[in-house]
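Exercise: predict the fold of this chain.
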Amino acid sequence: MPAKKLSLDARLAQFVKHAYAHAPAVKKILDDAGVKPASIKRVADLERVPVTTKDKLLELQKQNPPFGGFLAVDAKKLKHVFLSPGPLYEPHGAEKALATVFINVFRAAGFQRGDVVLNTLSYHLVPAGLLLDHALQSIGATVVPSGVGNTELQVKLLLDLKITGYAGTPSFLMTIIKKAEEMGLDFTQSGQFALSHTLFSAEPYSPSLRAQFEGTYGLKTLNVYATAELGALAYDTPDKSALQLVDGAVIELVDRDTGKRVGVRAPGEVVVTTFNETYPLIRLGTGDMAIYTDDSLSKIILVGRAGEAVKVRGMFVHPNQLKLAASKFPAIARVQGIVTRPDNVRDDFALKVELADESIDREKLRAEYSAAVQGLCRVSVDRVEFVAKGLLAENARGMVDERKWE
């Protein structure tokens, strides 16, 4: 077994013992599940611990305010208390786990000592701004805590301070760039600005935006998947085809019914254990769904939110898997999965497809798209039904469960 894995296992075992001894909520979760902290010796043993959903975390905070029994240090030692959507209180103390992960991610994005970085994530109530601030300072960068808004001022900061790095959402950086161009300024790398590398998070990073940032403007960009409670979880692989899971946290994709890890290409909920001694959340379910892309189980593709997935013949199928398969076929405009059980025995899985190109060979497309969906979801498609243009609304549900449970 690799030394790196042994180190992670040993760290996890120590962390679980700490959390059990100091956080009453963790003790109750393990006791109720009949799990002794000493029995968690390796990452695989975590499957014995129930997943705590965000809804459950919110319920526990309401029952036992403000931290739901998860605070594992003296409250007088806290440095900050944040409030994330839910609302959920998040205590931060002297722990370094979340910042250490972000330090490594910033380095992967090309940030280094001497950089001057525009940090546009919020410093107000949520932890994002300060967390990134601390990580940037730790690598020797100078931070400009601008937050969002006031785009003309942001342009001035970029010019006057020779900003080299940007942290925030991709859409806000594009807003700043468009404002600069409206002001008659040149935002290309060889022009008037020093900006060369960015770290994007907090919203989807579309291929069209990536093409503009990296092609038109010559920026090095890194997209990061993160959550308020758990920090950075994954970031772009070098070929931008997937997300590489971070070191420094235990990140699993699990079946929502069983809590067991799923296999390659099977969608599972992203469940995370960070080594945060102040606020030890063990197996927190994010509500995000993803798939492992290879046998290493270290690279993922996000496919949506858990509530949108439907289980078909024992496998979760998410609308974004259908869209991902459809992206290979320009002739497909929209798609919707329909699950029925006409004989009360076997699930029937049909796809409704709206075409962008009516001249396409439908039989060929039917066969190829069915195979692509099966390759992603590991569920065979019973039939593909082509529907009239406009029948599938833009906001129509991607997966519809019409089964009658009698």
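Check your answer against the key: The chain has ten helices and 20 strands.
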